[in-house]
Design goal:
This protein has 326 residues and is mostly beta strands. Helices cover 3% and strands 40% of the residues. It is globular.
Amino acid sequence: MSSKRIFYATQGVTLTPVNENNTVSTAVIPGGLQSIGVSTNFNLEKVFQLGQLELYDSVENNQEVEITLNKVFDGTKPLFLITMGGTASATSGDLLSLQNNKVNLDLYIHDETSRGTAGNAISRLQCTGLYASNFSYTFPTDGNATEEVTLLGTNKTWSTNTSGGSVFSSPQTAKGLARRWKFDSRACVFPTGNGGIPTGSPLTNVTVSFDLGREAVYTLGTYEPYMRTVGFPVEISTEITSIGIEGDFLNVNDVIYSCTGGAGGLQNKPIKFVICGSGAGNGVTIDLGDKNKLQSVNYSGGDTGGGNVEISYSFITDNVFHMIAS
């Protein structure tokens, strides 16, 4: 074996969507994948007995494989639709309709001294029946927009059976990396007005994150989970950061209810983000519905060391996350 290390060019990943009826779809090679991390936890349960100080036994209660993938928005299908869509052709979906779909993952390791192709992979990691558990989206002014997903499962097999393909047969070029100028602010819906951000705020960063709280459900007679249920309600967090111009304009009275007809409470706000693709297509829309409510505001920066005041507005809603890939 001439390979002495593993680095980005020697790794290739395929994702195979599986629907709730366990129908396996076509494998997808995700474009723009930046990293993969794999951790394994055996969740040992210790058992002791009366009359003995030493450990009586240590039971492998429920092993868990956790895989983290990070991808740039580049005009190819987002990880949300690949890992939860249930089919390789999925172009849209929300949490409720896609919650029971799974995905299989193959990680191929190639020889570092030759170009990574399916024919010269030296080892292969197979993980089946993975459930998407956690998602995080970042849209910065500096760097690429990224998507990160955490997958949970119980099956993990390393082998030298390297049949199949995990890398592109020829060099690829991004269809349209999502940078700050690809953030289509004209098509977005921002939470402005009372209990929101000031209209026309110069935005510097947007993040959206949520944890599906996948709880393993077990049945008698089986070792693996029967399923991993989504822990509804799922809280969706959105943080929008802007350069401060005049202040955050959130008065304490805006959030105090009054029986005598004073200022009302915080209002529900619609939020929708649109990311342009290449040409007329390959864009992504993330719709968070109409019931996002301001949770906190943070005014910081602008000190004597230089720099501008930045104001971060944190909004929360529940269960509404709809993605459309055009």
